[in-house]
TrEMBL record:
Residues 207-271 form the tRNA-specific 2-thiouridylase MnmA-like central domain. Residues 147-149 are annotated as: Interaction with tRNA. The record marks H126, Q337 as: Interaction with tRNA. Its EC number is 2.8.1.13. The gene is mnmA. It is found in: Cytoplasm. ATP binds at A6, M7, S8, G9, G10, V11, D12, S13, L32, G125. InterPro entries: MnmA-like, MnmA-like_C, MnmA-like_central, MnmA-like_central_sf, Rossmann-like_a/b/a_fold. It comes from Motilibacter peucedani. This is tRNA-specific 2-thiouridylase MnmA.
Length: 362
């Protein structure tokens, strides 16, 4: 097969490309330039898409012995990922930019261009597995549970799964680093990227404030009593405890958490931890990694990248929305997050959460 290997400049994508080439595929490496003005160097494990990353990717391609190119997708990334991130926070939601990047950039813009150029598959360093099932290719969890990235790939549809390649899904991270060293790849000890790649300093609230400006408002309790003020509701997420800057404790002395964010009233509602328990979620824009389910299904549901999956019942309504009833409540679920539905280790599909409920229905 002709394979386009997305090479970020890190160890995972380098080893993935090397494995694809060693398996006999005709591999071409490509580095995605996602920043209009990339920094020269990374700040430790923060950020990505620097000039240093591009050079690391090129050196890895040279060692592997494959052609290498840089594709400028900065404008598309800014519109589909960065601007979406800002607008979602402005609307009081909590987005996951990694899912949006996989959906809109790596497996839409890149895959579409790759197929148009005659490639058969896009290869990445994600930790997930593609398995041939009775109804076609299936997306499954990785062998290493600590590295599994199937959640952020849950936005891939059936066509995208059919053209995806994840060579690292059956390996442990320690094995990948050891292999990189054996292959002579200089990125063998390079730190992994963490946090949001386009916010290199890790200050999400500051990034949003620069984009959205000051918007002072009130912090209130569930009875509507004002307990504090804020500089912008976009600086909060449901479930947040730290950084609330509430001048006085709750009457019972217990910590308070963000329960709700209203961009219309610019109010942040806080309350007790148990009020964060969610028993059901409703999601829009369902995306199915294989055939869509027929009727309600028993499943496992996961609502954050590093969260634990819980038993659930999922079904699609007449309006096309996905409703997931959680048999075990999950704490601190926010609109804007994704719910990913699994059948065992197989990814069934995902949806963007629009509403949550403390009852079994939404």
């Amino acid at each position: 097969m002709r394979v386009l290997a997305a090479m970020s400049g890190g160890v995972d994508s380098a080893v993935a490309a090397a494995r694809a080439a060693e398996a006999g595929h005709d591999v071409t490496g490509v580095h995605l330039a996602l920043s209009p003005s990339p920094a020269s160097f990374r700040a430790g494990a923060r950020g990505c898409c620097t000039v240093e990353d591009a050079r690391d990717a090129r050196r890895a391609a040279d060692v592997i012995g494959i052609p290498f190119y840089v594709w400028d997708l900065a404008e598309r990334f800014a519109a589909d990922v960065v601007e979406d991130f800002v607008q979602e926070y402005a609307a009081g939601r909590t987005p996951n930019p990694c899912l949006r990047c996989n959906e809109k950039i790596k497996f839409a813009a890149v895959l579409d261009r790759a197929l148009a150029l005659g490639f058969d598959a896009v290869c990445t360093g994600h930790y997930a597995q593609i398995v041939d099932g009775p109804a076609g290719r299936e997306l499954h969890r990785a062998v290493d549970p600590g590295r599994d990235q199937s959640y952020v790939l849950g936005v891939l549809d059936e066509r995208q799964v059919a053209h995806a390649m994840f060579p690292l899904g059956g390996s442990l991270k320690s094995e990948v680093r050891a292999e990189a060293e054996r292959r002579g790849l200089a990125v063998a000890d390079k730190p992994d990227s963490h946090d949001i790649c386009f916010i290199a300093d890790g200050d999400t609230a500051g990034f949003l404030a620069r984009r959205l400006g000051d918007a002072p408002g009130e912090i209130v309790d569930t009875a509507g009593e004002v307990v504090g003020t804020h500089g912008g509701s976009f600086g909060f997420t449901v479930g947040q405890r730290r950084g609330l800057r509430i001048g006085r404790p709750a009457p019972d002395g217990r910590p308070r958490y963000v329960l709700d964010i209203s961009p219309v009233t610019n109010r942040v509602v806080v309350g007790a931890a148990e009020e964060l328990d969610v028993h059901a979620v409703r999601g829009s824009r369902p995306r199915w990694s294989g055939p869509a389910p027929d009727g309600e299904i028993e499943c496992l549901a996961q609502v954050r990248a590093h969260g634990e999956p819980v038993p659930a019942v999922a079904g699609v309504g007449e309006d096309g929305t996905l409703t997931v009833r959680l048999r075990t409540p999950v704490r601190g679920v926010a609109p804007g997050q994704a719910v990913v539905v699994y059948d065992g280790t197989r990814v069934v599909g995902s949806a963007t959460i629009d509403a949550t409920s403390r009852a079994a229905t939404v």
